[in-house]
Amino acid sequence: MENTKTKVKEFFLELSSQVAFYTVIISLGNMLFKIINKAYGIYGNYYYGVENFNLALPLSILIVSFPIFAILTILLEKNYILNPENKDILIKRLLTYLTLFVSSVVFSISIIIILYKFLDGQEILTGFAFKIITVIILSALSFSYYLAESRNRLNLNYKKISIYVLLAIVVGSTILGFVIIGSPSKQRQLKEDSAMINDMRLANSQIESFYYNKSRLPDNLKELTSDSYYYINNNSKITYQKVTENSYKICGDFNFDYVLSPDAVIKQVYPAMPEDTDWMYKKGKTCFDKNTERLNKKETGYPTIPRFKVDETYPIPEPL
């Protein structure tokens, strides 16, 4: 009975350790890919695609999963020192070989995806080369580690060294990511700019709708918010100024200059949509001069419901 409990304990500890290892390697690879995409760009086969380079998710996963992997690895090895017979149990060997198999499959799939994107024109040669190198290094590290583990060639000191090496790679990759992509505070400022420009676009569309319905411009934003038909973000810091009966300004303060998209770099295979060039801003206070000229020409873009003329061509069917 005691032997069965020991095997169950060893199974879940080994499984948890290896799942944590998978998570560390995949998150590290994801973070490195984002850094490479930021540095060398990626082209999508869509009209208006966005590649987000925020490191928050992979870095958060690494911060949690890496200590779990390190602690479980050291606990398991200390347990094997006290109970050497547990090191050769069948369950442990099966899990180790399963890890080797999964590493091989992940390596093959990753190479296929990277090669496909390169041949499809989504990757430039430099980014493609760095991604191939990244996959090879991470796969070689994981495969060699568990191959040595399957042959019982790893002791406690060797595993500690392996953990320190992996920690150095994680820390180095994180620092590189912050240098190339930016710190969390910069990401927050970029999101503020993104929210600001979205609020300005929303306000502009509501002002146009107001003018379309009432044939005049609102005196201020409060006039829009007082009518439930229109929606304006009340927490927004944008300002509105009516200049003449047919022109107005929408202003806001930005942290950075406009670069296609505030929180992402967009690589496009087709020309940008007209709205993008209409809302290009500079760091600091930026005002956009708008007018109702296109609204007066009925070029609003608002859909109109066609009126159906009932005549002999379109007879009304008799009721059943």
Any chance you could write out the topology, listing elements then pairs?
Layout: H1 2-40, E1 51-52, H2 56-82, H3 90-119, H4 125-150, H5 156-180, H6 184-214, H7 221-225, E2 239-242, E3 247-254, E4 264-265, H8 274-278, E5 284-291, H9 293-296
Antiparallel strand pairs: 1-4, 2-3, 3-5
Helix pairs in contact: 1-2, 1-3, 1-4, 1-5, 2-5, 3-4
Q: What ranges have pLDDT less than 50 throughout 5 or more consecutive residues?
A: 45-51, 261-275, 302-317
Question: Which percent range fits the helix content?
Answer: 55-70%
Main sheet record: 3 strands, antiparallel
The total tally of domains equals 2
Structural class: mainly alpha
Number of helices: 9
Describe this structure in words.
The longest helix is centred in the N-terminal third of the chain and has 39 residues. Strands 2-3-5 form a 3-stranded antiparallel sheet. The protein has a two-stranded antiparallel ribbon with strand order 1-4. It has about 325 residues and is mostly helical. Strand 2 and strand 3 form a beta hairpin. About 10% of the residues have low confidence. The chain folds into 2 domains: about 180 residues, no CATH class; about 110 residues, no CATH class. Helix content is about 60%, strand content about 10%.
Fill in the keyword field for this structure.
320 residues, mainly alpha, 3-stranded antiparallel beta sheet, two-stranded antiparallel sheet, 60% helix
